[in-house]
Request: fold
Amino acid sequence: MNGQQHFEQLAAWIEMESAAEAQRLAERRQRQSGAHAEKSGETLLDLVVVDHQAGLGGRYLFTFVKRNRDLTLPWNRLRVGSPVLVGDPADSEANLYPGVVSARNSQKIQVALDEWPEGERFRIDLSPDEITRKRQLAALASVVHASGRTRQLRDVMIGELEPRFAPEAEYEFLTPLNPSQQQAVQFAMSAQDVAIIHGPPGTGKTTTVTELIQQAVLRGEKVLACAP
Reply:
């Protein structure tokens, strides 16, 4: 499999995953109702609108609460930015209004909608994240058509080019490190493309990476440290 085929395969898998998630959520909406649906964390039932206002881009901001105002919202996975579908709780085939959660607390949830939803009682369901899917596909496309240094790194990452390393230098370490950690820092500092430091939990990877960052800064490099 060449590089082009590799990224085409990734794009196909993203589309398959999105389609499967959409089917799962649609089937769950038709199959589950009542308290069982809410226990999934992907649905809020028996909601009414208590406020609405104009939002940015011509959207409407609707605030929903439980019909029984004494009830708080149950635990759910609907966070700010989550894509949702707003519809009639009694009819799974009725109009569904796509929106995005724009605010929430324990008592209420606000959703940005393009249309004014019809009805008096509502159900809100988590929906497939089309925005993320489109961004993933756009990112893949940008990598496929990359040039210069980005293209070089891409080819290294998919195994079409060998990563390059400069001769390892000696460093005056700022942190007490064992020989394995010292070797990892020297290895990473010699990398001209990419280096991976790995090991079981508790082996000092964080300490090693901290030392690596300090050594890179001392060498005049700019460092962007990221974590999942």
